C-alpha cells in the first residue's frame, strides 16, 4: 500500500501549516441559527474534493439526539447521483437540497415552514472515499408571542387596589411584557408597580385620574403582540344611604304586615260576633208555623169570634168546657224525632209584630171554661 500521499498531507498540515488535503467542508457561516416559526432556513454546507477522493459521493443530513438514549434521525440523503428526501416523517415535504446537483460542491439543505419542533442540532456529513468531513449547526426555531389576554382584577373604586394582567399562551421564552397608556397624558399612574416578567401592573390606592385605556405589549426576540384593557375608576357608593334605605324598606314591610294582621283579626272577630247575635235571636224566637196551620188557626179563631158574637143565654149550654179544652192536633204535632217540645217562651209584642203575627182578641174564661 502506497502511503506517500497521506504522509505528504500530514507533512503539509503539521510543518507547513498549509491547507488540508482531501475532502473539506469550506462553509464559514454561523453554527447557530435562530429563526421564527413559519420561515425558511438554509443550513449551509459547502465542500471541496481532492484528486485522490475517487470513491462515490455520499451526503447525509441527520438530526442529532438531545438525549444520549435517543438515536440519530436521518433527514435527507444524496447517494448514487440521487436525492432521497423522505427519511424523516416530521420534515416530509418541507426539506430538500439547496442545489439540484449537490456533487458540484453544495450540500446545503433548506427547511421550509419552520415549526418549534424543528429545533435541534443538524449535522452535514460528506463522504467520498478516502475523504470524509462533517459540520454541525444548531437551529433554534422561535415562536412569536400569541395575542395576549388583558384584564383587570379587583375593585374599580377610588382608594382601592387593583391589578392589570397580561398573558400570552404561546411564545418562545424569554417573554417580556410592557405596559403603556394610550389615553390622557399617556403617563402611567405614579403608584403603578410593573412586573415585566409576570405581565402585571398593580395600581395602589387608585384614583379617578388613573381611568383610561392601557396597552400591554408581549415581546420576545422574534416579534411582538399587544392587547388593550379599559379601566374606569369610580367613587365608592354611599353605603350609609344604602343601609338607611334598606332599614326603611324593612320597617315599611313590617308595618304593612301589622296592618294586614290587624284587619284579619278584626274581620274574624266581627264575623264571630254576628254569628253569636244570630244564635241569640234564634233562641228567643220560636220557629214560625206553616202557612196551612196558621190559616186554619185564623179560620178557627174567626169562627169562634162569630160564634161568641151571636151568643145568648139560650145557647150558652152549647159551649161547654170540653170544646175549649180541645186542641188541634196538627198545630202541636211533635217533630219526627218524637222529642218533647219545650213550652213556648213569652214573647214581647214588638217581637211578634216584627215576625208578622196578627193580634187576636180571645174571650176570658173561668177555671171551669165558662166565658166571663
TrEMBL record:
<feature type="signal peptide">
    <location>
        <begin position="1"/>
        <end position="22"/>
    </location>
</feature>
<keyword id="KW-0393">Immunoglobulin domain</keyword>
<dbReference type="InterPro" id="IPR003598">
    <property type="entry name" value="Ig_sub2"/>
</dbReference>
<keyword id="KW-0732">Signal</keyword>
<dbReference type="Pfam" id="PF13927">
    <property type="entry name" value="Ig_3"/>
</dbReference>
<dbReference type="GO" id="GO:0014704">
    <property type="term" value="C:intercalated disc"/>
</dbReference>
<keyword id="KW-0130">Cell adhesion</keyword>
<keyword id="KW-0472">Membrane</keyword>
<feature type="domain" description="Ig-like">
    <location>
        <begin position="19"/>
        <end position="140"/>
    </location>
</feature>
<keyword id="KW-1003">Cell membrane</keyword>
<dbReference type="InterPro" id="IPR013783">
    <property type="entry name" value="Ig-like_fold"/>
</dbReference>
<dbReference type="GO" id="GO:0016323">
    <property type="term" value="C:basolateral plasma membrane"/>
</dbReference>
<dbReference type="GO" id="GO:0005923">
    <property type="term" value="C:bicellular tight junction"/>
</dbReference>
<keyword id="KW-0796">Tight junction</keyword>
<keyword id="KW-1015">Disulfide bond</keyword>
<keyword id="KW-0675">Receptor</keyword>
<dbReference type="InterPro" id="IPR003599">
    <property type="entry name" value="Ig_sub"/>
</dbReference>
<dbReference type="Pfam" id="PF07686">
    <property type="entry name" value="V-set"/>
</dbReference>
<feature type="region of interest" description="Disordered">
    <location>
        <begin position="286"/>
        <end position="353"/>
    </location>
</feature>
<keyword id="KW-0677">Repeat</keyword>
<keyword id="KW-0325">Glycoprotein</keyword>
<protein>
    <submittedName>
        <fullName>Coxsackievirus and adenovirus receptor homolog</fullName>
    </submittedName>
</protein>
<dbReference type="GO" id="GO:0050839">
    <property type="term" value="F:cell adhesion molecule binding"/>
</dbReference>
<dbReference type="GO" id="GO:0005912">
    <property type="term" value="C:adherens junction"/>
</dbReference>
<keyword id="KW-1133">Transmembrane helix</keyword>
<feature type="compositionally biased region" description="Polar residues">
    <location>
        <begin position="291"/>
        <end position="317"/>
    </location>
</feature>
<dbReference type="InterPro" id="IPR036179">
    <property type="entry name" value="Ig-like_dom_sf"/>
</dbReference>
<dbReference type="GO" id="GO:0034109">
    <property type="term" value="P:homotypic cell-cell adhesion"/>
</dbReference>
<keyword id="KW-0965">Cell junction</keyword>
<dbReference type="InterPro" id="IPR013106">
    <property type="entry name" value="Ig_V-set"/>
</dbReference>
<feature type="transmembrane region" description="Helical">
    <location>
        <begin position="242"/>
        <end position="265"/>
    </location>
</feature>
<feature type="compositionally biased region" description="Basic and acidic residues">
    <location>
        <begin position="318"/>
        <end position="336"/>
    </location>
</feature>
<dbReference type="InterPro" id="IPR052307">
    <property type="entry name" value="EJ_Adhesion_Regulator"/>
</dbReference>
<keyword id="KW-0812">Transmembrane</keyword>
<dbReference type="InterPro" id="IPR007110">
    <property type="entry name" value="Ig-like_dom"/>
</dbReference>
<feature type="domain" description="Ig-like">
    <location>
        <begin position="145"/>
        <end position="234"/>
    </location>
</feature>
Amino acid at each position: 500500500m502506497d502511503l506517500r500521499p497521506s504522509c505528504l498531507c500530514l507533512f503539509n498540515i503539521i510543518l507547513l501549516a498549509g491547507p488540508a488535503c482531501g475532502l473539506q467542508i469550506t462553509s464559514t457561516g454561523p453554527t447557530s441559527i435562530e429563526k421564527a416559526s413559519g420561515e425558511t432556513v438554509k443550513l449551509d454546507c459547502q465542500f471541496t474534493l481532492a484528486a485522490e477522493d475517487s470513491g462515490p459521493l455520499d451526503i447525509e443530513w441527520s438530526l442529532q439526539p438531545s438525549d444520549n438514549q435517543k438515536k440519530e434521525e436521518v433527514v435527507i440523503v444524496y447517494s448514487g447521483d440521487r436525492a432521497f428526501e423522505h427519511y424523516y416523517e416530521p420534515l416530509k415535504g418541507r426539506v430538500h437540497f439547496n442545489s439540484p446537483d449537490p456533487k458540484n460542491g453544495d450540500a446545503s439543505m433548506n427547511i421550509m415552514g419552520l415549526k418549534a419542533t424543528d429545533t435541534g442540532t443538524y449535522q452535514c456529513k460528506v463522504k467520498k472515499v478516502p475523504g470524509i468531513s462533517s459540520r454541525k449547526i444548531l437551529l433554534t426555531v422561535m415562536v412569536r408571542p400569541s395575542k395576549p389576554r388583558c384584564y383587570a382584577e379587583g375593585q374599580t373604586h377610588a382608594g382601592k387596589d387593583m391589578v392589570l394582567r397580561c398573558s400570552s399562551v404561546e411564545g418562545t421564552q424569554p417573554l417580556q411584557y410592557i405596559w403603556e397608556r394610550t389615553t390622557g397624558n399617556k403617563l402611567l399612574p405614579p403608584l403603578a408597580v410593573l412586573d415585566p416578567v409576570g405581565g402585571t401592573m398593580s395600581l395602589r390606592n387608585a384614583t379617578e385620574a388613573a381611568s383610561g385605556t392601557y396597552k400591554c405589549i408581549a415581546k420576545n426576540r422574534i416579534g411582538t403582540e399587544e392587547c388593550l384593557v379599559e379601566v374606569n375608576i369610580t367613587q365608592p357608593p354611599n353605603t350609609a344611604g344604602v343601609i338607611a334605605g334598606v332599614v326603611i324598606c324593612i320597617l315599611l314591610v313590617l308595618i304593612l304586615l301589622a296592618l294586614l294582621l290587624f284587619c284579619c283579626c278584626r274581620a274574624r272577630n266581627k264575623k264571630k260576633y254576628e254569628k253569636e247575635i244570630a244564635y241569640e235571636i234564634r233562641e228567643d224566637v220560636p220557629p214560625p208555623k206553616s202557612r196551612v196551620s196558621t190559616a186554619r188557626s185564623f179560620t178557627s179563631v174567626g169562627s169562634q169570634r162569630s160564634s161568641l158574637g151571636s151568643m145568648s143565654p139560650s145557647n150558652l149550654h152549647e159551649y161547654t168546657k170540653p170544646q175549649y179544652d180541645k186542641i188541634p192536633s196538627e198545630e202541636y204535632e211533635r217533630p219526627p224525632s218524637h222529642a218533647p217540645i219545650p213550652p213556648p217562651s213569652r214573647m214581647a209584642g214588638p217581637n211578634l209584630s216584627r215576625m208578622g203575627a196578627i193580634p187576636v182578641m180571645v174571650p176570658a174564661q173561668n177555671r171551669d171554661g165558662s166565658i166571663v
